Amino acid sequence: MQTGIQESIWRAAVWFGGMVCAASLLTMAGTCAQAAQPHRVTGKIYFQQVQIAYIGSGAAGRGRLTFRGRTYPFTIAGLGVGGIGLSKLTATGNVYDLNSLPDFEGVYGQARLGWAVANKGGGNLWLANDKGVTLKLKTRRQGLMLAGGADGVKISFSH
Could you give the C-alpha distances from 13 to 18, 57, 81, 84, in angstroms and in order? Predict the structure, then answer.
């Protein structure tokens, strides 16, 4: 019979193992998708979002897509697991393999591991959706954040 402490340790280990597996699967899926075919740049993207995390995480923000000479405003929102802190993320980058505007909207997956202290956090991020659209982003994070885990973000056009 397990004690309460042993049971808590066991649950934490199982939860952590699940998060590591989820992050690994998302990373492998993104790597396979990137290696499977050459990408062609079809647009540009810019957005800012605020992320709050304490075991679970939530994020919300706004941005703009430049596609075929026009600019389209959008919102971005997400939920995730893993991390602690509060930060503001600014991202710019390229959109790959966007064939039609409706293909941009939807859920994008990401695996993340990173940190931010004051104005020192930054890096690169790949996001992909189920319609074959890939975002390669250069990110800059401000705030205090320790992040690890997997996220899903939903992008919707602003009206």
Answer: 9, 19, 15, 18
